[in-house]
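Our consortium's second objective concerns turning raw sequence data into structural hypotheses that experimental partners can test. To show how far this objective has progressed, the report includes one record in full. It was chosen at random from the queue rather than selected for favorable results. The single chain below, 166 residues long, was entered without modification.
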Amino acid sequence: MEMSNVILIALILAAVAFLALVATLVAKKSPDKQSLEIDNQSEYAPKHVMSQVEQALFLRLIEALPEYLILAQVQMSSFLYDKNKKGGWSALNQIRMKSVDFLVIQEDASTVMAIELQDSTHKRKDRQKSDEFKRDALKTAGIKLLEFYAGKLPSAKEIRAAIGKE
């Protein structure tokens, strides 16, 4: 066998090995059927959507604002978007993982205001930074933000007064 034939066979074998390696790497990145199935080791259980304090405020909001719909734990990306489309995925990612405690909407699903319940967790630096981002984003969008404190929940009458309905 000539040296050129040996080199050709070696190159073909190297190419086949390279293609096999690429196919293996692509297969590992692609979701397979097993990754789409529920992990048999996990045991899912329901949990409350709101804390007791949030539930108490939620009921007061319903009482105080019967002309509106009150939504709880709403992701900001559900009601905000980057209208200039300059921020791209970065802008979406900034709001995608943030939520407001309550969103007050009209029957046509347009946003009236957001409501945040401040508790002791909001004293942490990371939460303060997140709260400041929320305030800025809502202000930029022209959405009113009301903040109430867990230690002193407002009455239904005080809620109506805070939004200018009394």
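The partners drew two points from this record. Strands lie at 69-75, 99-105, 111-118, 144-149. Residues 52-162 form one domain. Both points have been shared with the crystallography group to help prioritize constructs.
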